[in-house]
């Protein structure tokens, strides 16, 4: 399974996420290292999400991953977060209605995050923000002419 995103809080402590290829019965994974990558440990099973696309960590303990779950002809956005450095993850079911696949996320502070993606049902870009480290989310207005957004 390919790893798709990695964030290191120090040169020794990193968290990475992986997502299965389409059609695979496997679930996404998260792994972490505390020795600069010499060894990696899998975290608990990431349930409730089929695809992960991006990861950010606002601190060594708080990380948020975004992705999506199949819904009709597109995907419904999904958010996972950890408050213990990746040891365990929880699905945050508080995304606003109409949020499709989320493909980018940034949390520049311990509490504020912005995630971007697309609402595949209407082929329009979408952005959401959180002020509580990814626990709850609000939609941000994006110009109608934008069909997709990504974050570096």
What key phrases describe this protein's structure?
12 strands, 152 residues, four-stranded antiparallel β-sheet, mainly beta, 0% helix
Share of residues in strands: 35-45%
Low-confidence stretches: none
Strand count, sense and barrel status of the largest sheet are:
4 strands, antiparallel
The protein's oligomeric status is single chain
Radius of gyration: 15 Å
Q: How would you state the average pLDDT, rounded?
A: 87
Q: Could you give the order of the helices and strands?
A: EEEEEEEEEEEE
**Count of DSSP strands:** 12
Distance between the termini: 23 Å
Side by side, the strands of the main sheet go: 1-2-3-4
Q: What is the tally of helical segments?
A: 0
Helical coverage, percent range: under 10%
Structural class: mainly beta
Principal-axes shape call = globular
Secondary structure layout plus pairing:
Blueprint (H helix, E strand, L loop, with lengths): L2 E6 L5 E5 L10 E5 L7 E2 L8 E7 L5 E9 L2 E9 L7 E2 L10 E5 L6 E7 L4 E7 L7 E3 L12
Antiparallel strand pairs: 1-2, 2-3, 3-4, 5-6, 6-7, 7-8, 9-10, 10-11, 11-12
Short recap of the structure:
With 152 residues, the chain is mainly beta.
């Amino acid at each position: 399974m390919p790893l798709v995103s990695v964030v290191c809080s120090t040169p020794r402590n990193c968290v990475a996420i992986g997502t299965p290829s389409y059609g695979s019965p496997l679930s996404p994974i998260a792994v972490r290292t505390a020795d600069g990558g010499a060894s990696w440990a899998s975290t608990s099973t990431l349930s409730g999400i089929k695809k992960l696309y991006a990861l950010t960590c606002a601190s060594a303990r708080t990380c948020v991953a975004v992705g999506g779950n199949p819904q009709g002809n597109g995907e419904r956005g999904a958010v996972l977060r950890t408050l213990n450095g990746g040891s365990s993850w929880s699905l945050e079911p508080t995304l606003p209605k109409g949020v499709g696949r989320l493909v980018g996320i940034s949390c520049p502070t311990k509490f504020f995050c912005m995630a971007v993606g697309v609402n595949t049902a209407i082929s329009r870009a979408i952005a959401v923000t959180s002020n509580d480290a990814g626990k709850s989310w609000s939609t941000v207005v994006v110009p109608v002419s934008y069909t997709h957004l990504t974050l570096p």
